[in-house]
Specification:
- There is one protein chain.
- By secondary structure, this protein is mainly alpha-helical.
- The protein has one domain.
- Helices cover 76% and strands 0% of the residues.
- It has 3 helices and no strands.
- It has helices at 3-20, 24-53, 64-67.
- Helix 1 (3-20) packs antiparallel against helix 2 (24-53).
- The radius of gyration is 20 Å and the shape is elongated.
- The termini are far apart.
């Protein structure tokens, strides 16, 4: 399961809890949390696309003379 899938599940759980509560303040907080999880889903998907297009380069080797 990908990070996006986990984040999506957390968002759904927040929305489920928001539907079950009758307290407006709690409902608002849970909806805000769900929206934050969805933003993380979107960011994780963008990151995954960038990883495919621009793989992370290997770390640069520092010449021995520069280390001292």
């Amino acid at each position: 399961m990908s990070r996006s899938d986990y984040y999506r599940q957390y968002a759904q759980e927040c929305l489920r809890l928001a539907n079950e509560t009758h307290e407006p303040n709690k409902k608002a907080v849970l909806i805000d949390m769900a929206q934050a999880w969805i933003r993380l889903v979107e960011q994780a998907q963008r990151n995954r696309q960038l990883d495919r297009v621009h793989p992370t380069p290997p770390p640069r080797q520092i010449p021995a003379a520069s280390r001292a």
